[in-house]
Amino acid sequence: MNPDFPARRARLAAALALTDEILLVGAGHPVPKPEISDQQFPFSTHQEYFYLTGLNDAPGAVVAFDPREGNKRGWVSFVADVSEAERVWEGRQQPPGQSLATLDAWLTARRHRPVVMLGVPLRGVPYDERRTSRVREAFTHARRPKDEAELELMRRAAVATAAGYALAAKCIRPGVTERQIQIELETGFYREGATATGYGTIVATGPNAAVLHFSPTARAVQAGEFVLIDAGAEIDRYVIDVTRTYVAGRPSAFQRDLHQVVLGGQERAIARCVAGAEWKEIHLQCAVDMIAGLVAMGVMRGHPEALVEQEAHMLLFPHGIGHMVGLGVRDGSGLLPGRARDPRPCLASLRMDLPLASGYVVTIEPGLYFIPAILNDPRRRARYREAVNWPLVDQNLQLGGVRIEDNVLVTDGAPEVLTQAIPKTL
Ligand code: GLY
Ligand code: MN
Ligand code: MN
């Protein structure tokens, strides 16, 4: 199913409610590598531009909108002329649209109007920053619910992701390296139709599992160590973001309990992903659930709610419960329009603050980690002297951590887990 871009643009125009302003949405430009060479970092158009056009290989392109010409007819897509060198060296084709050379005349005809600038700002075109931030907020909010075309891509990306996890899980044993696991995983993604990985694959063994965004290395996993994999396939710009934590060989009782605490917290959080639920409440409730599990394990002491109010959960759960995902691994998070940032320190790590609505796709990714950079901090040790069983923490400072992450579609009924085909048991 292809998205109906004219209908999508008209819907967005209505949601933005512009009157006198003109809207410019820049695709952006490739970034050359720092050394002097003909090499560039891989290029993708800005997600705001892509959402309106579906064009990925369109460096320098601009989509423009004049509300005085109507929500349907007011849009013009300007694309750069593809050069002979680009055709010869890169095989580029001319994308559809009006020549970028005509943008100046379009702007000159509207020269005294305020400019709102989304995507990557155009060089040399001044714009109204205050209006731009209001419009960006409205734009982001309007594209939060995924449409059927977007969901179809995400479901296909979930199938490819599951294929990769199946291969990776099969190869995990003592002695295998993070890189070997990455190779199996990504092979599965590409065989099942991935066009890219959604972000830099994380494969982290042993203590590396406590590094939140770890890049795989040649380290071989030892018997009894955690293996944390956080990775997802991308299909035509739509991304899946999954984490599973395994043990190479036999897990210890402590590892099983820790995994079970995260899994229990994650499953209860998923069940709470219903329309109208406040994201920060899902986060805080999951923190309370996991702290209760840590108290039961003897890692922490006290009342779970009180410990979360004191931000003690941030010692082992230092990140937010998740984020929106879809058109990129960070898609549409942020605040509900008009909402101010909640100043509570226990919410500082949250990527969004809004009520969920039907059509949103969010990650639910709680984790518990033994992170030396946090747990060896003398000020935290003093502040939480009574709340934490420090000798037990010290015994486990090299253990790494556990994260479990799924992608959840909010519906008018029960939440749908797009990534449920990937087993979670240890
Ligand atoms: N893969 C990074 C994250 O889970 O947000
Ligand atoms: Mn992830
Ligand atoms: Mn994530």
Description:
The chain has 426 residues and is α+β, with helices and mostly antiparallel strands. The chain has 2 domains: 5-142, Creatinase/prolidase N-terminal domain (Creatine Amidinohydrolase, Chain A, domain 1, 3-Layer(aba) Sandwich); 148-417, Creatine Amidinohydrolase (Alpha-Beta Complex). Helices cover 34% and strands 15% of the residues. It has 13 helices and 18 strands. The strands form 6 sheets. A 5-stranded mixed sheet has the order 4-3-2-1-5. A hairpin with a 6-residue loop joins strand 17 (406-409) and strand 18 (416-417). Helix 6 (148-171) crosses helix 7 (178-191) and helix 8 (253-271) runs antiparallel to helix 9. It is globular, with a radius of gyration of 24 Å. Bound molecules: glycine and manganese (II) ion (2 copies). One manganese (II) ion binds next to loops.
Main structural class? alpha+beta
* Bound ligands, named by name, code or SMILES: glycine, manganese (II) ion
Give the CATH architecture of the largest domain: Alpha-Beta Complex
- Proportion of helical residues: 25-40%
Into which percentage range does the β-strand content fall?
15-25%
Number of domains: 2
Dominant shape: globular
Radius of gyration from CA coordinates: 24 Å
What's the rounded overall pLDDT mean?
A: 96
Side by side, the strands of the main sheet go: 4-3-2-1-5
